[in-house]
Amino acid sequence: MAVRRSLLGYPSYGSDRLDNFITQDGVQQADLSFLILSIYALILTCDSVGATSPECRMKEMTANDDFERFRTGAAKYAAYLETPEGRLRLDLAFANLQDFLPQATRSLHALDLGCGTGAIAVRLARLGLHVTLLDASLPMLDFAKRAAREAEVTERIALKHGDAGQLANLLHAESFDVILCHNILEYVDDPCAVLRSAARALRDPSSIISVLVRNQAGEVLKAALQDGDLAAAEHNLTAEWGHESLYGGRVRLFAAESLQAMLKAASLTVTAERGVRVVSDYLPPQVSRSADYERIFELERKLGRRPEFAAVARYTQHLSRCADPVIEDGS
Asked: Is the pTM of this model over 0.85?
């Protein structure tokens, strides 16, 4: 199946809002309500562990920062996806996913957690899948709606405003054949809980979940080779958090062992591991990221399949299926 290697042209963020959310004031009220509920939940958590604990204060600041950067940074993120680096991350992740999509013996349903601008969801819809897009940022959903409309796949797209951390309360279990967790576990409070909820939402053993995260080993090479910062490279050998260059702030890093342990704890069995962007970030200036894009893509596909290269990629992608029936908490 041919891989489409050009993104939809995303317009600048404007006043055309999601029909589901009625008016501009309604969008602002919805964002404000979501932020208030998030803070309230944090207050309840702090009450149980001590309102003055440093851990609780840090968690509250991180949650608020994450919410704000995705609420206000949708246009910046859409622009990033049009760069060679952004396109390559999307194209490689989608090509890897296509290799493991379930056979379409029935109408397939997909869930995109933290869908962002909907770039991959729209591609899945073009293949005939019905896709539910879940995101806590209404501006991101606005971009996704426009992308679906321009691709003429709105009848196969369902937009849902909500937090991936509340997935178990938002969608039914055993409902989806494909679930995407691409670049979302880096920002949620509890990645393990999100993975457990996602595993419960898989329809059957043939269903697939694709997890794409920032690779700790890749951050080591980036700091040394791209930034020339040897101290940062040494620090990143064991760092749990890195720096998010697009938005600013922190981003969670994943070592291979810790991610595999999380997937196993969620009763997920890894079918394949792929590296995403192994060498493209470090190519010299004489290699054009635009003119040589196809060659870079094909090289990255080959490198990403080989474990020795995938281990140091900027991102790591795990494609998994349910190992055994997932046991509900407390049962």
From this structure: no
